Amino acid sequence: MSAVLSTLLAVSFVGPCSEKPIFEQEIAPQFKTVGDASLHVLTQSGLAFEGNERGIHSIQGTPIGLAAMEVISEQEMRAYGWCYEVDGIAPEEFPHQVNLTADTKKIRWYFAYAHFLNGQWIAQCAPAYKIKPAFLCGE
Question: I need a surface site. Which of 6, 53, 106, 109 has the fewest CB within 10 A?
């Protein structure tokens, strides 16, 4: 029995409170960059969002700017925003700079945080759903 390989590209968006995607769709791999494919899916999804091919600022009202900062103490804070992975790898480039290839299978966006503690940034793009921040998810 031979396996049938999918030629579709899966694009998903994971919010701050659950690992389950708030939206996911498979699309034809006709887009040049992560930014182009992501913007297409968001536009087609009907989800309220702010952003463009260069990055996502908000989906379904996730906070931006100062509202996306969680001050825990004088020495600790978290700054929240949207990060992405391509086939499980988080590129250091903006989404409009990351080209898709025929081998690309999945783009996964997730609401995440950068963690600042005692004068140092100790984490970047840590998934928010793993800590379920009370100011976003309730207690």
Answer: 6
CA dihedral 82, 86, 89, 92 (to 10 degrees): -60
β-pairing, 106-117 with 9-14? Answer: parallel
Q: Which domain holds residue 59?
A: 9-134
**DSSP code, position 100:** -
**Residues 28/41, Cβ–Cβ less than 8 Å:** no
- Per-residue pLDDT tens for 86-118? 999 999 999 999 999 989 999 999 999 999 999
Q: CA-to-CA distance for 57 and 137, rounded, in angstroms?
A: 18
CA dist 36 and 40 (Å) reads 6
